[in-house]
Design goal:
single chain, 79 residues, alpha/beta, 3 strands, 33% helix, globular
Length: 79
């Protein structure tokens, strides 16, 4: 089992980076790895309840379901 730290610095201005980071964190957790997420800079606004529900990439990926999975699996999110 490996340990991963995902550092997210972008927020609503860059939904592609937000969704991709959370998607990769979800995949790592599904594979059984130890995952931590650190929100900094513009990403701290995503820590407010409901903000992840507003993040949708042009590809159709939504941050909300990825983030919900991570929360349900007790992945620590540091702000």
């Amino acid at each position: 089992m490996a340990q991963f730290l995902f550092v997210l610095t972008h927020g609503l201005e860059d939904p592609v980076r937000v969704t991709r980071t959370l998607q990769l964190a979800k995949v790592a957790r599904e594979k059984g790895h130890d995952v931590n997420i650190f929100l900094t800079d513009d990403a701290v606004f995503l820590a407010k309840r409901g903000m992840m529900d507003n993040v949708k990439a042009p590809t159709g990926d939504e941050a909300g379901p990825y983030f919900s999975f991570l929360v349900e699996h007790k992945v620590p999110v540091y702000v």
